[in-house]
Write a structure and sequence with these properties.
396 residues, alpha/beta, Peroxisomal Thiolase, Chain A, domain 1, nine-stranded mixed beta sheet, two-stranded antiparallel sheet, 13 helices, 11 strands, 18% strand
Amino acid sequence: MSASIIGMAHSRVGRQEEQTLYSLLTEAGKEALKDAGLSGKDIDAVYVANYSGGGFNKQEHLAPYAIEIDEGLRFKPCIRVENACASGSTAIAQAIYAIESGRFKSVLVIGVEKMTSLKTAGVTEVLAMASYYPEEGGKGYSFPGLYAEYAKGYMAEYGYSEEELADTLAYITCKAHKNAMANPLAQMHMEFTHDFAKQISDKNPMIAPPLKLSDCSLVSDGAAAVVLTSTDNAIAMKDKVVEISGIVHASDYLSIVQGKRARYELTAVKYAAQKVLGDLGMTINDIDLAEVHDCFTITELLIYEALGLAPSGKGREALLNGDVYIGGRLPVNPSGGLKAKGHPVGATGVSMHVLIVKQLLGEAIGEQVKEAAAGLTLNIGGSGATNIVSVLKRIR
């Protein structure tokens, strides 16, 4: 058995002062049900992906609020899923497992985060709780600092100078912002020049050496939702069907600073990608586009290598030869990614799936990738501790 997405919703991403955590959740859920042509009574369970409703909004125990979407959801199981920035894809994976078990027929998954209720210092503090707190967040590490460890490890392993790395990462920044210009739901509609993204300046300060402000994803509000059912049910209900053909969840050591995992590669991402593609009898060459977790530009660079788009230490080649641009071998983050579309933490994994489905249906939110039949999502939690890769295919 496999699962397919039959209904979707995706909010605007960014600072949304008129929206609350609750309104973002309910609006996304209602829209996804409407898109699926279902009501609450047709749904067997609701999974709500949310990283820190408590930290950002003083609301733990969020999942039962989903009943406000439709009174038909009353008495149905509502489950909150937390797995840091990978909460959304984790919720989708759990919903798929429940459908495949036969326990549930149709499941609503909502990812939501309202982050801008706090100022920058408060956001940083809440996000730090997704690290290994005794050795990382509790000792002053922010997430830019943790991913800076990857950047430093990469330079040391492969002999890059800081200037060479800055030049490489600037291409990723500029690509993200150019792609976001076509996405009406993206947070930042602003193109960057290569020189601006490469250089330290008053408007582009160093955040955690060697990562600058232009290397960091955004603080965002937003929500996305999907309705999942078995592929057999989807085919009976819809004229167009996109299936989640495979999904692999690979966990690694929680801490990056303790030295139990490499600081120059995303080892568990490589494992998850190879396994999901191998299980499906596919290679990365069979994928037409990807939405990946570019929480920092160094992360996207490492992802190119983990996916096999470039050899280890040579991710820069995927940029210079155009492979990862729209029109290239494998367009990466045509939406603008976390870097420019935005990163409402709990919603991000669900957002990725909505974006890929829309592309495969020929109804892209943003620029359409031509003749896309198979897409990949990669969602990361923490500094590489939680890693979920899914492959989606247009099957009808």
